[in-house]
Design brief:
48% of the residues lie in helices and 10% in strands. It is of the alpha+beta class and 450 residues long. It is elongated.
Length: 450
């Protein structure tokens, strides 16, 4: 009988009735349900009901009065704008998370060797404190086409002009009835040859005198040198009109800096540039040659890259996104890196591995769980991207930068007023996010089991 009263684990008390049983923590199930009820109500009202209603609404037409079945889904996948949105969303998912994670990994690893690592991390993470709207406005200004407005093009134009000569007079052209004629490539060449006896006259028009750069001097007739070629390049026009065409009249402005080439049989035998008063001289080798003003004198100035054009608008917006979220990835990866056993890294170095091999074969594998977390989080985030695309992409190229979240807005509220089709896009977007969320939940469960 005594054996019946005890078990291998000790004495057992009387078993309570089923209705009075408690949970492992000593709490009755109905009490647990009571505390969970507010959260369940909010979850149902803010998540479950909207999803269910969106599924139901996607089966009706634009105003919700007629049942159309799956027609909205068919229209979605046959519409060019939605197809572009799906394609761009795929580009975002493939590029943006990997780019941010890669930058975050590089920053996290390199900052371990930087003396002011904390300050660097603060600077890189600081864009996370800025809203998407503010970041979009900032990068809309950064990507402005005009170099005097957009920072990106200002830098590119500055670098370009450091290695390439910029044109002096981009809108200038020969005066009508003059000796200069177009000769291809934007250049102008005289029809007749020049000689040492008479100075050459090269009149140009196409620019207002008050628009000439650097306030040039008045043009002056060139004196004959007797042993070489001389001449004058000037603007054959003055404010108020008057004067004789093809002649240097008082008050007409010089065009200094223009390059002049002497060409014989298609070859350049001499070259020079016009002086402050528009005059120039060439050596005697130029006798009997034609004078050519190269196209580099008149080419349009380099204005940088069309960042927000049809071909670059999506990469440009992804760059803005990386500026914001690389700091987020860096902080998470740096936290994971702080938990890496340094003995493993030192052991690899003792075995002869260089820093690249230690990084690739030891550091990255040890950080794999953190990298997966960052990558999955950013993948879910970019599927919902809306603000940056809506703000940065100008109206003419917004269709080329379109993504699913923006297409949902445009179709439902941005002029389309078709909430049936918008609901269908929302359901497809949910279905795209679900696999990533499921993978993340399974990963979390596996980590808990460890």
């Amino acid at each position: 009988m005594a054996a019946d009263a005890v078990t291998a684990g000790g004495p057992r008390g009387p078993v309570p009735p089923a209705g009075k049983r408690k949970s492992l923590m000593g709490t009755r199930p109905w009490v647990v349900g009571l505390f969970l009820l507010p959260a369940l109500v909010l979850l149902g009202a803010l998540v479950v009901y909207p999803i269910g209603y969106s599924v139901w609404r996607s089966l009706f037409d634009a105003d919700g009065s007629g049942f159309v079945g799956l027609d909205n889904y068919v229209d979605m996948f046959t519409d060019d704008a939605t197809f572009t949105a799906v394609k761009n969303t795929a580009i975002w998912v493939a590029v943006a998370p990997a780019l941010c994670t890669g930058l975050g990994l590089i920053f996290a690893v390199l900052t371990e060797r930087v003396r002011w690592s904390t300050a660097f991390k603060v600077i890189v993470f600081m864009p996370m404190a800025i809203s998407m709207l503010a970041a979009g406005i900032i990068f809309r200004l950064v990507y402005e086409a005009e170099p005097d407005q957009g920072v990106a093009n200002a830098v590119i134009v500055g670098v370009h002009d450091s290695f390439a000569d910029s044109s002096v007079y981009p809108k200038a052209r020969p005066a009508l009835g003059g000796d200069l004629k177009a000769s291809g490539g934007g250049a102008f060449t005289t029809k007749s040859t020049v000689n040492t006896d008479s100075p050459a006259l090269l009149p140009l028009v196409g620019i207002a005198p008050n628009k000439l750069p650097d306030s040039p001097q008045n043009a002056k007739p060139a004196a004959s040198t007797g042993s070489g070629i001389s001449g004058t390049v000037w603007l054959d026009f003055k404010l108020g009109g008057g004067g004789k065409k093809g002649a240097i009249d008082p008050g007409e402005k010089a065009m200094p800096g223009i390059k002049i080439e002497a060409v014989k049989d298609g070859k350049v035998v001499a070259s020079t540039k016009a002086g402050a008063d528009g005059t120039f001289t060439l050596p005697k080798e130029a006798d009997g040659a034609q004078l050519r003003l190269p196209g580099s004198n008149f080419a349009a100035p380099y204005n940088g890259v069309d960042w927000l054009g049809p071909s670059l608008v999506t990469p440009a917006i992804i760059g803005a996104y990386a500026w914001m979220w690389a700091g987020f990835a860096m902080v998470l990866i740096a936290a994971g890196l702080a938990g890496v056993d340094r003995n493993l890294l030192e052991a690899a170095r003792v075995d002869g591995a260089n820093e690249w091999q230690v990084f690739r074969r030891v550091t990255v594998p040890l950080l794999a769980p953190v990298l997966v977390v960052v990558l999955i989080t950013l993948m879910i985030n970019v599927m919902k991207i809306f603000d940056l695309v809506y703000i940065i992409a100008p109206q003419p190229t917004q269709d080329e930068a379109n993504v699913l979240a923006l297409q949902l807005y445009n179709v439902s509220f941005g002029g389309g007023e078709n909430q049936g089709l918008g609901s269908a896009i929302g359901i497809v977007l949910l279905l795209l996010v679900l696999p990533v969320m499921i993978i993340n939940i399974r990963r979390l469960r596996r980590e808990r089991q460890r």
